[in-house]
Each structure stands twice: as C-alpha cells, then as structure tokens.
Write a structure and sequence with these properties.
The complex is a heterodimer of chains A (151) and B (297). Chain A contains five helices and five strands; from the N terminus they run H-E-E-H-H-H-E-E-E-H. With 151 residues, chain A is an alpha+beta fold. Chain A has one domain (26-142). In chain A, strands 1, 2, 3, 4 and 5 form a five-stranded antiparallel sheet that branches. Chain A is globular. With 297 residues, chain B is an alpha+beta fold. Chain B has two domains: 37-186, Rossmann fold, CATH 3.40.50; 190-296. In chain B, strands 8-9-5-11-10 form a five-stranded mixed sheet. In chain B, helix 3 (57-72) runs parallel beside helix 6. Chain B is elongated. The chains are: A alpha+beta (151), B alpha+beta (297).
Chain lengths: 151, 297
C-alpha cells in the first residue's frame, strides 16, 4: 500500500514538471512584394485537409506575431505580444480562425508534399501559401487590432 | 416665479456658453491630429533646394516613390513641390544665403516631420546601381524617427529613376514600420516639446530670483512645476543660466487626459502662463511648431 502511494506521488510529480512544448513555426519565405507574400508552411494533421488548414494558420500566425525573415514583412504585423493581443481582441481572433475568416486573405494554397509520418508519430504536409498582405494589414487596422499609420 | 426660472436658464446658458456650434458638432467624436510629413531632397552645402529638384528627374522620382509608400498606408504627405512654389510666389526666401533657404523652407512649411532623401548613382562597366538614403526627423526636436539605406543592385540599364524606385522599394516597408514604432511610442509616452524660458530686456528678474510664497529660486520653481506636469514625469533640462532655462525635451500627451480632446503645445503653454501668474510673474509666450518660448517681463 505504501509503495503504491509512493508510486502515485512520483507519477504526479513527473506529470506536474512537464514543460510547455511549442512546435517550430516551419514557415519559410518564398517570394513576395509590398502587397503579397508567398511562404512554404508545414502543417500537422490526421488528414490532408487538417494539415493544410494548420499550415495556412501557421503562415498567418507567423506574419501576425513573428515576422517573416528575408521578406519585406520581416517584423510582426501585430507588435504587442501574442497572448495579450489574442486576449485583448478575442472576438476578432475567434472569428478569424474559428469561422475560417482567415481564408479570405489567402490568395492561393497548394500542397507541395504528401501527408508524411513524422518521427513523433504525427503527420505533416508542406503547403505553399500566398497571403494578401496589404488586405490583411488593412483589416487589422480597420478592426482596431493595430493602429493606422500615424498617431 | 416663471420669470425667475427663465432668467436662471438664461444665466446658466450664458455661463456655460462655450457649447460647440451646431455646424461643427461631431457628437463628441475626437479624431487625433496627425503629424504633417513632408518629403524633401537632400541638399549639399551651397546647393539651392529650389533648383535641385528641377534639374534632377531621378530625385523627383524617388520623392514620388516615397510619397506613394505613405499613400499606400493611408497617410497624406505635404507636397514639397507645391509648397516650394507657394513659398516662391510669396517671396518667403529673402536671404541670399542658399544654405539658409532649406532651414527657412522647413520652418515655413508647417510640417512636423520631414523625410530627407539622398540618391547616390553608381555607374560601372559591370552595371549601374543606385543607393537611396532616407531619414525621417521630427523638425522641432531633431529626433530621428527612421533611417534606411536601400540598394537597387546592379543592372545593365541607364534608367536611373527605375533603379532609384527599386532601391527605395527594398526598404519601404521597414522604413514605415520603424516610423510607426516611433509613433506608437509617442502615442504611449507623449510627444516632445522644447521650452525656453527667457527674460525681457527690462525685466527685474533672473533665474536665480526668489519668487512665490515659498521664496524659492525661479529655476527651482520651474523645475518643480515641470516635474509635476510633464507627461509621465518625463522631461529633460538642457541647462540653466542667469537669463535662460531650456527644457530640451518635455513630453506632453496627444490627448487631454481628462476630456479626451486633442492636446497641443498651445494648451501646455497656457498652463505655464497660469503658473507664472501664481508666482506673481507676467510673461509673453510664442509658439513655433513644438517649441514654446516664454519671455518673463
């Protein structure tokens, strides 16, 4: 009985010590200008459709909160940190992602690999995504998520 | 009784008679006053800003490209060429000193920020290239807002204007992003003013005169007032002498923190003026853009 109790405590301690694990963004710049940007993004999902959606969301998240190195949008569109921006504008992001509004800013999205099994048993797929950057910035400005240029 | 009631209403209307006129009443909606931005060419010492643009189409192309970048972000700039023509017709430039003309022009333009652009053409047998240097300054304080150098890369073309456009396009987004970051800082932490306190020639006071009821030095009174009233307690004293005290960076908010209306240097100068009155001093105030000059009589 005592051993069982010790074992339970040990399991609880191990699970309690679990550190947050973040997926790498896996988004690289392909081409683009001031108005559009094309990226190769890797999405994870059980099937091709889910992986493609994940890749598209990853690409937009990188533009929002990280910036895309080598592109003209190398600094994030939303300059405040991700958690506070998502909390402050919860309605916007709920509609944007959950209602698939983000798709209206995607000009094209083409899978470039098949769904492949990874070492960690997840399945992933690379997708070339082109985003209408100008429209996305205007939308953020008009909905008050970021300020318009100027004071 | 009825007459008394009507009279009371009439008096009340007179006292609170600063109601907004119907024609301009926006129902309390306040739009933030935006800075005026002007794009100008870089001028070397001795060059005449009036002829620089007329003689060089590439500089005009670069300036237009920069203005286009501002337009694409929904921001209208002050047109340099139009202002230049207006100032020429108004005979603004009285001085024969050409280097002064740029300073005079910037002062009279009414712009808050100017973007200076320099076009550097590099010709070689392996192709031509253009470097564009763009720098944005706040006119009143000289604070730098954004600086970028754009390079076109080498091409076998004589179309220098096209290369200049290409050079600026490589840095346009970055340039505006850095500017916007500085604007955000101004929105959050206030904009900079320069405040100079001086004395009229026949004034009986100087900075070390004891004033007010506490008998403190005038310079100390001004410092304490600034400490209390600068936005977020953010101010810097450049220096104090017998006859001059300069605050080279005093932050004021963009919006009145109590009413939400736009706040400007004139309103801050009025507060200083009222404070001087409490010390028993008479003053004269002059305001030029974001610089306040207070002359104590």
């Amino acid at each position: 009985m005592r051993k069982l109790l010790m074992f339970s405590i040990a399991i609880m301690l191990f699970t309690g010590c679990k550190t947050a694990y973040y997926q790498t963004a896996k988004v690289v710049y392909l081409s683009g200008g001031n108005e559009t940007v094309s990226m190769r993004s890797v999405g994870i999902g059980d099937n091709e459709q889910k992986a493609q959606i994940d890749a598209e969301m990853n690409a937009i998240d990188v533009l929002f909160f990280r910036g895309l190195p080598s592109s003209k949008q190398n600094s994030p569109l939303i300059s405040i940190d991700e958690a506070s921006a998502k909390a402050k504008h919860a309605d916007y992001f709920r509609e944007f992602y959950n209602n698939s509004r983000y798709k209206t800013f995607i000009i094209s999205s083409h899978p470039v690999t098949k769904l492949e099994k990874n070492a960690d048993k997840t399945r992933s797929m690379a997708v070339d995504v082109t985003v209408n950057l100008k429209a996305l910035r205007l939308d953020l400005e008009n909905r008050g998520v970021i300020r318009k240029f100027g004071y | 009784m009825k007459n008394l009631f009507l009279l009371s209403i009439l008096i009340l209307c007179t006292i609170t008679g600063r109601a907004q006129i119907a024609a301009t009443n926006s129902g309390g909606e306040v739009q933030t006053v935006q800075p005026k931005i002007m794009v100008i060419p870089y001028v070397k010492e001795g060059e005449d800003i009036r002829t620089v643009l007329e003689e060089d189409v590439n500089k005009r192309i670069t300036i237009t490209k920069i203005k286009e970048a501002f337009d694409s972000r929904g921001f209208t700039t002050v047109d340099f060429a139009a202002r230049l023509r207006a100032s020429q017709s108004n005979s603004v430039f009285s001085s024969a000193n050409k280097t002064d003309i740029k300073a005079q022009f910037i002062q009279m333009s009414g712009a808050d920020i100017y973007v200076e652009t320099e076009v550097n053409v590099l010709l070689s047998s392996t192709g031509n290239s253009v470097k564009v240097i763009v720098t944005a300054y706040e006119i009143s304080t000289g604070n730098s807002l954004s600086n970028k150098v754009g390079e076109s890369g080498k091409f076998y073309t004589d179309d220098i204007g096209k290369l200049a456009s290409k050079a600026f396009e490589t840095v346009a987004t970055d340039f505006l992003t850095v500017m916007q970051e500085k604007f955000t800082d101004i929105v959050n932490n206030g904009k900079s003013l320069i405040i100079e306190f001086g004395f009229a020639e026949d004034s009986q006071y100087n900075m070390f005169s004891e004033v007010g009821t506490q008998g403190l030095l005038l310079s100390d009174e001004l410092d304490m007032w600034m400490e209390q009233n600068a936005y977020k307690n953010n101010y810097h004293i450049q220096g104090t002498s017998d006859n001059l005290m300069i605050f080279d960076d005093v932050k004021i908010p963009l919006k009145d923190q109590s009413t939400g209306n736009n706040y400007n240097p004139n309103k801050f100068a009025l507060e200083i003026f009222k404070f001087l009155k409490t010390l028993g001093l008479e003053g004269k105030r002059d305001i030029k853009s974001n610089t306040i000059f207070i002359t104590i009589k």
